[in-house]
Amino acid sequence: MSLLEIKNISAGYGDLKVLFDVSMEVDSGEVVSLVGSNGAGKTTLLRIICGLSPVTAGSITFDGIDLLSKKTHNLADLGIAHIPQGRGTLRRMTVKENLTMGAYCRSKRKNIPKNLEYAYQLMPKLKQRQNQVAGSLSGGEQQMLAIARAMMMEPRLIIMDEPSLGLAPIITEEVFELISRVAEEKIGILLVEQNLAQALSIASRGYVLENGHIVLEGGAQELFDNPSVREAYLGI
Asked: Where does the ABC transporter domain lie (predicted)?
């Protein structure tokens, strides 16, 4: 049994059908990339995992627990962190305050000092800026802060939505290197990303979502070498 198992999920908004019989899985310590163009249904799938959108069919389990029966606020207690598109940093609060908010679960509060130190070791720039308000950080630094804040809750799974959005290529590389180091801590990562080359460069496996359907799945290199994928997403 994988850590996260999505089976035959179908969903939509009223009469508009968005997802059709979608199945995928993520295991501990594994980076799995979900790629697809705008409107493919990627964000809708994340909203379903996080209890923010209903489904019409299918199941989602996390370590054997039925996620569809849980409320959104229960996910943190289970060990699921979600880094939304746009990073979701608390712009008027300092870096340290943002990190502390990541440990809001009662069971994690006692570990705040230890986890703060770990976050600063993982991302030294954040320690230098711990008293700076988050809104004054660069886009790359805010993305690193969002990842560090997720780590404060000692997650078993991190869901990331478009972490490269709005970042310069060199900063994107730094962020993806950080994601790889996080996965080394045996944390499962579901990475939703339009940047195919970056997404597959750190993934072990991937899925391609088109018009609400999983049309391809396989090893990261296998997908990257697929002619139809390269033509659709890389233009080559």
From this structure: 4-236
